[in-house]
Structure to design on (229 residues):
């Protein structure tokens, strides 16, 4: 059967059969198909087969997950799509913190270039063979990886190079940084600072505190620094 006549599940089964013992049984959840690849070193070969033999010609995204406290610590997630058959497929593979590296798939899809750079920048996973592996959001020499789960939600004070003077920045707090703790997700974000103080308070969706309303003169949003008349 030609790939354009197959479902996403059938395409996933074809890819699994192409690499016996390396790819898990397809997992279907909410009409989405996921395959787990047991060896990250084989990802370029598997991705090339998915593109050239099964028509997954579009790399939608590559993302990463920090399984902090578990080993392997990191999961790489490749989101594929085929314009000829209109099917999507997700490939996952794991990378240990000790190794912290996987081979690049830029030789399969050129758009992997920026996706891999972002993962390197935010999570610290390196991609061997990448043509230009450097940070894409933070500056070179930035010492942290902000999407790792051991990076504090309020950020870490960091000096910006080649700047005469600066406040602690970036990702070192601010009005829209999620607050740790709280009884539920709604109570943790977003947060609003009272003008001129370090006090934190949730917004109107959670019935803002009376002193917040009096200080800002509004009952919704961050408000202004002007007192209510």
């Amino acid at each position: 059967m030609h790939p354009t006549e197959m479902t996403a599940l059938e395409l996933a089964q074809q890819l699994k059969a192409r690499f016996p013992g390396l790819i898990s049984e397809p997992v279907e959840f909410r009409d989405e198909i996921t395959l787990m690849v047991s060896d990250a070193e084989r990802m370029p070969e598997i991705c090339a087969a998915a593109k050239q033999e099964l028509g997954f010609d579009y790399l939608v995204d590559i993302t990463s997950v920090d399984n902090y406290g578990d080993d392997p610590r990191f999961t790489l997630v490749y989101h594929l799509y085929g314009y000829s058959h209109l099917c999507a497929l997700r490939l996952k593979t794991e990378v240990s913190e000790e190794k912290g590296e996987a081979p690049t798939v830029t030789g399969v899809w050129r758009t992997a270039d920026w996706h891999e750079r972002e993962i390197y920048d935010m999570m610290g996973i390196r991609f061997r063979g990448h043509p230009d592996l450097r940070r894409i959001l933070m500056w070179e020499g930035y010492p942290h990886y902000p999407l790792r789960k051991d990076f504090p939600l309020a950020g870490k004070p960091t000096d910006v190079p080649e700047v005469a003077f600066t406040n602690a920045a970036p990702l070192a707090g601010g009005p829209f940084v999620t607050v740790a703790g709280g009884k539920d997700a709604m109570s943790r974000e977003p947060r609003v600072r009272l003008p001129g103080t370090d006090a934190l308070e949730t917004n109107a969706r959670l019935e803002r505190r009376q002193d917040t309303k009096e200080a800002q003169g509004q009952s919704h949003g961050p408000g202004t620094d002007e007192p209510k008349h």
Observations:
- The chain has a mean pLDDT of 81.
- The longest helix spans residues 112-123.
- The chain has four helices and nine strands.
